[in-house]
């Protein structure tokens, strides 16, 4: 059984995927791709660029935004996951995005931060 936080996070990831497919016209390559102890929420294709997207679902009045909740520690944990995917797929063009889903219990609002500094 999922916790309320997990259910909200899963719902946010569905909204983010729909946003990337329908609004941004990205092709979704994978979701919740795992390597060892890490996971990247969404992997998508934007033209020639592979996009690694971390999704953060937050209440609209949260003290820390979804963007700033992806800390150096989180990026460090994601680094081997992204490196393995890049290695396995021999990628040349890639970037890291953060998708923040802000909600108030009923309405979801999406903020897409592209090409966030990572490495």
Task: Describe the protein's architecture and organization.
The protein is of the alpha+beta class and 119 residues long. The chain has a single domain, classed as Trna Endonuclease, Chain: A, domain 1 (3-Layer(aba) Sandwich), CATH 3.40.1350. The chain is built from three helices and five strands. The protein has helices at residues 4-23, 66-69, 72-89, and strands spanning 27-35, 38-46, 49-59, 94-103, 108-113. The chain has a five-stranded mixed sheet. The N and C termini lie far apart (36 Å). The mean pLDDT is 93.
Record the SSE blueprint.
Blueprint: H1 4-23, E1 27-35, E2 38-46, E3 49-59, H2 66-69, H3 72-89, E4 94-103, E5 108-113
Number of strands: 5
The rough form would be described as globular
CATH overall fold name: Trna Endonuclease, Chain: A, domain 1
Number of helices, where a helix is a run of at least 4 consecutive DSSP H or I residues: 3
Q: Order of strands in the sheet with the most strands?
A: 1-2-3-4-5
- How many domain regions? 1
- What's the N-to-C terminus distance? 36 Å
Summarize the structure.
The protein is an alpha+beta fold.
Features:
globular, 35% helix, alpha+beta, Trna Endonuclease, Chain: A, domain 1, five-stranded mixed beta sheet, 119 residues, single chain, 3 helices, 5 strands
């Amino acid at each position: 059984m999922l916790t309320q936080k997990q259910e909200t996070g899963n719902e946010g990831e569905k909204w983010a995927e729909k946003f990337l497919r329908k609004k941004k016209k990205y092709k979704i390559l994978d979701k919740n791709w795992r390597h060892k102890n890490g996971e990247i929420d969404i992997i998508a294709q934007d033209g020639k660029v592979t996009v690694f997207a971390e999704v953060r679902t937050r209440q609209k009045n949260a003290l820390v935004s979804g963007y700033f909740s992806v800390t150096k520690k989180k990026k460090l944990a994601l680094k081997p996951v992204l490196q393995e995917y890049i290695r396995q797929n021999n990628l040349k063009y890639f970037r890291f995005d953060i998708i923040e889903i802000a909600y108030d219990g009923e309405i979801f609002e999406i903020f897409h931060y592209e090409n966030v500094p990572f490495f």
